[in-house]
Amino acid sequence: MLGWFKKKFSKKEETAAPVEELPLEPAAEEEVLEQQAPVEEVVAVEGAVADEKGLKTPGLGSMFRQLSTRLSLTKESLVYRIDTLFLGKKEIDADLFDELEEILITADLGINTTMEILDDARKRVKRDALSDPKELRAVLKEQLRSFIIQSDTSAELVMPDSGPFVIMVVGVNGVGKTTTIGKITNKFKKSGQSVLLVAADTFRAAAVAQLKIWGERNNVNVVHQHEGADPSAVAFDAIDQGVAGNYDVVIVDTAGRLHTQVNLMEELKKIKRVMGKKLAGAPHEILLVLDATTGQNAISQAKLFNETVGITGLALTKLDGTAKGGIVANICRELGIPIRFIGIGEQIDDLRDFDPDEFIDALFGEDSYTNQQ
Ligand SMILES: Nc1nc2c(ncn2[C@@H]2O[C@H](COP(=O)(O)OP(=O)(O)O)[C@@H](O)[C@H]2O)c(=O)[nH]1
Ligand SMILES: [Mg+2]
Predict the structure, then answer these.
(1) pLDDT tens, position by position, 99-110
(2) Per-residue pLDDT tens for 255-278?
(3) How far apart are CA 122 and CA 111, in angstroms?
């Protein structure tokens, strides 16, 4: 499978040193939740591999089938509706395009993206003298794919030569930031990377507690301070700990904020700035988490967060809970920021590297994955 995570860390994986961690020295004002316990054995994600407990890790084929199942709401609202429309039509006419337009907009592709797709489709029908509606299916699939692929260009990131790779996670309340951090941590751990989590969401004690739970699940340390602490100070000290503890990855959770809350957005800038002062280049990734169920509002969130702190990657959550997964194409077209991950459930494994081909195939059906184990 493609994807940022694998590409980026593949080099590191080959030379991975033993992943045992030095115990952290708790800094004066912070506590570190727990000392690191022995790191679990690395389990390959791809290929059906049984671990020592006899548990089978899903192979590519079943991973693909699972993705396809989780996207079933969008599949029904977009692809099944297109298929039903085409089945009932004998020719490609203006009515058919009108109905297609309604389907695409309902699936949250957005007006502009929908119009562009339909204009292109009309041209293709003319150019290739298509007359059978079913031939249009392949055209639409290809167009959606090309929109989504546009944003995969900068998906590869470079790990810093020394020091931890720092990810700052931002977004509005409830989009799934903390959950996504938990899932990403699991991915890093599986590839042998050591991870330090940072609770810079200091507004609510519950937020810190939630990150601690994900820390426990993943068996990683969580840096935190008291409720109401200055999030920049938490992040500043955490970078020290990340460097001193020789961590591969530091992931900073931030409080949810509305993109319209000017002071809170300024605070994000500050968190970013202080980390950069402590460690040149940090944060290396500013990951904006977007909730796919919020529809077009996700686009305006992304624009404002991008203007404020400069977003380098996106995680799109809750694609399992929406019929409006067409938002993926719209996001790629409107923003040009790569989608790194998609969330397809609430569990630790319910996160995928975003692979445009796989995503489109999961929606439209394709046998290239399903033939494999
Ligand atoms: N179905 C589904 N729920 C998700 C997904 N990601 C997060 N959630 C849920 O969304 C809710 C808010 O998540 P949380 O991580 O607390 O959001 P935060 O406020 O941005 O940190 C929780 O109930 C999560 O379980 C996803 O991909 N699919
Ligand atoms: Mg949170």
Answers:
(1) 999 999 998 898
(2) 998 867 888 899 999 999 999 999
(3) 16
**pLDDT of 85 above 70:** yes
Kindly state if the Cβ of 318 falls inside 6 Å of ligand 1: yes
Amino acid identity, residue 301? Q
Cβ–ligand 1 distance for 344 under 6 Å, the answer yes
Q: Quick one: which ligand is closest to 203's CA?
A: 2
Tell the residue nearest (CA) to atom 1 of ligand 1. Answer: 345
Structure tokens at 295: 């529809």
Identify whether the C-beta of residue 299 lies closer than 8 Å to the C-beta of residue 80: no
Who has greater pLDDT, 49 or 291? 291
**Domains in the chain, please, with CATH?**
22-37+59-373 (3.40.50.300)
Which distant-in-sequence residues (6+ apart) come within 8 Å of 46 by Cβ?
Answer: 1, 59, 60, 63
Alpha helix segments (H runs only) across the chain? 4-14, 60-70, 72-74, 81-87, 94-106, 111-127, 133-150, 177-190, 205-218, 231-244, 262-278, 297-309, 327-335, 356-364, 367-370
- Name the one residue in this structure whose structure tokens are 């459930």: 345
CA atoms within 13 A on the CB side of 109: 27
